[in-house]
């Protein structure tokens, strides 16, 4: 934004003394007097934004609990403009409109219409900070006005403040989580913020990274194995310039996402993959990638919380962290169900998606719905065994142990080698046999694992204890 703002130190003595008196009045809670002192200061020096902020806070405090003014527009002190005339003045002579707008805002500081005119006047006068303040004021007084917040977010993007824009889009989603434009906006704003942090718009910094022809050539090489952090940053800088040239190029966006994933910066990778998916919502592979990365980001957070709880189980904030853990887990399950359901509805014949949807439903405790999806997924030979195992878990949780065992036996017979899936199947069988009091059958299941993998879960302890 521009740097034309005026500070208190820049004010002439006559105005700065009024500001000092207003500060003292605010401290003594004499906000009405503070308004009287600050209003002429702001009228005399429109670029004194700190004064405008103080005036607005004082006006709001002064009007708190008071009835709204009967007339929104009209004569003020004999020289006021009508609504229509003031709007015309804003367009033709924005500087002349500012004092009249400030008079109106003294009586109704959060008024959307007047603040909207202040925004238009500030834009016309190249006062972007004041323009943003006008919209922020509307937001403060009307926090559910998403139309205003969209306007504010766009203003921040236009003025190269993407982090602020991302925060506004996130606030919109808290009001209305179905707002697709806000969802795209927060991803795009975060992407732009990432570019700003990396300095991709600064060509000199990119040249510093590409110091030699050999390095430039290596950056063109798509064989990315073993790249150092500096090499990855150099690649990101190069692809960042390509993104600046064409932000809608999905291949460039996916390349940046991939590089962030290699850096193990999963949060940034997720933002870029999510942005790529927004460019092509029909790409089921991208949808799966976004879901997978979101799960990995969640896993990192879960692992951190779990480690903190295990290290300090009696800490003062332990209960809060446990509640946060459960809340995050529930939110993750809900999101996974909604996401996979949406993908299945778009691609109803894709049995892999049916399996993922069934697994999400099982994790969320929606067993009947999960059974229907997993039964369909079994028709895909590539995921037949995994689907059968999931189906058995559904029956087990419903207490239908005979059907669960039937599914597990079917799966065990089809798995010839003792791979990880067969071990999981045999272990699940053993646990069900134990629940049914069938100790010999359970022991037989555990022994099959024991013979090839002594360290698998608690199999060794279960088998050896049976001989005691």
Largest sheet: none
Radius of gyration: 31 Å
| Overall spatial form | elongated
Give the proportion of residues in helices: over 70%
Number of strands: 0
Contiguous uncertain segments of 5+ residues: 65-81, 202-220
Summarize model confidence as the mean pLDDT: 83
Share in β-strands:
under 5%
Run of helices and strands: HHHHHHHHHHHHHHHHHHHHHHHH
Number of helices: 24
Structural class: mainly alpha
Distance between the termini: 78 Å
Question: Can you walk through the features of this model?
Answer:
- This protein is mainly α.
- The longest helix is centred in the last third of the chain and has 29 residues.
- About 8% of the residues have low confidence.
- Helix 2 runs antiparallel to helix 3, helix 13 packs antiparallel against helix 14 and helix 22 runs antiparallel to helix 23.
- It has a domain of 135 residues.
- The chain is built from 24 helices and no strands.
Summed up, what is this model?
Helices cover 74% and strands 0% of the residues. By secondary structure, the chain is mainly α.
């Amino acid at each position: 934004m521009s740097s034309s703002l005026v500070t208190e130190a820049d004010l002439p003595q006559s105005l700065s003394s009024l500001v000092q008196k207003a500060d003292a009045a605010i401290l003594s809670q004499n906000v009405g007097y503070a308004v009287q002192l600050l209003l002429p200061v702001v009228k005399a020096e429109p670029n004194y934004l700190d004064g405008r902020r103080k005036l607005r806070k004082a006006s709001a405090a002064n009007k708190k609990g008071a009835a709204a003014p009967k007339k929104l527009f009209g004569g003020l002190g004999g020289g006021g403009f009508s609504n229509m005339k003031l709007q015309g003045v804003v367009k033709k002579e924005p500087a002349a409109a500012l004092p009249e707008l400030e008079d109106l805002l003294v009586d109704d500081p959060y008024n959307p219409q007047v603040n909207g005119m202040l925004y238009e006047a500030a834009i016309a006068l190249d006062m972007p900070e004041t323009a943003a303040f006008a919209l922020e004021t509307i937001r403060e007084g009307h926090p559910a006005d998403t139309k205003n917040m969209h306007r504010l977010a766009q203003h921040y993007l236009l003025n190269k403040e993407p982090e602020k824009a991302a925060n506004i889009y996130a606030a919109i989603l808290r009001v209305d989580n179905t707002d697709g434009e806000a969802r795209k906006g927060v991803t795009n704003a975060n992407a732009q913020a990432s570019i700003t942090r990396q300095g991709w718009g600064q060509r000199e910094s990119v040249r510093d990274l590409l110091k030699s022809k050999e390095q430039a050539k290596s950056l063109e090489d798509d064989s990315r194995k073993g790249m150092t952090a500096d090499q990855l940053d150099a690649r990101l800088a190069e692809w960042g310039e390509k993104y600046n040239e064409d932000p809608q190029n999905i291949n460039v966006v996916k390349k940046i996402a991939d590089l962030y994933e290699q850096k193990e910066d999963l949060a940034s990778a997720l933002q870029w993959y999510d942005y790529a998916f927004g460019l092509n919502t029909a790409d089921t592979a991208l949808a799966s990638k976004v879901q997978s990365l979101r799960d990995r980001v969640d896993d990192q957070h879960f692992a951190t919380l779990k480690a903190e709880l295990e290290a300090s189980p009696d800490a003062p904030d332990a209960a809060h962290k446990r509640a946060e853990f459960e809340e995050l887990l529930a939110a993750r399950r809900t999101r996974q169900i909604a996401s996979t359901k949406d993908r299945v509805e778009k691609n109803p014949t894709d049995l892999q998606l049916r399996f993922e949807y069934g697994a999400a439903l099982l994790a969320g405790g929606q067993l009947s719905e999960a059974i229907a999806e997993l039964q369909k997924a079994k028709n895909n030979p590539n995921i037949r065994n995994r689907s059968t195992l999931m189906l058995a878990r559904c029956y087990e949780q419903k207490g239908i142990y005979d059907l669960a065992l039937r599914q597990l036996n079917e799966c065990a017979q089809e798995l010839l080698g003792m791979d990880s899936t067969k071990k999981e199947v045999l272990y699940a069988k053993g646990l069900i046999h134990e629940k049914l009091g069938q100790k010999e059958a359970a022991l037989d299941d555990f022994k099959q694992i024991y013979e090839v993998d002594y360290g698998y879960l608690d199999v060794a302890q279960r088998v050896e204890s049976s001989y005691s």
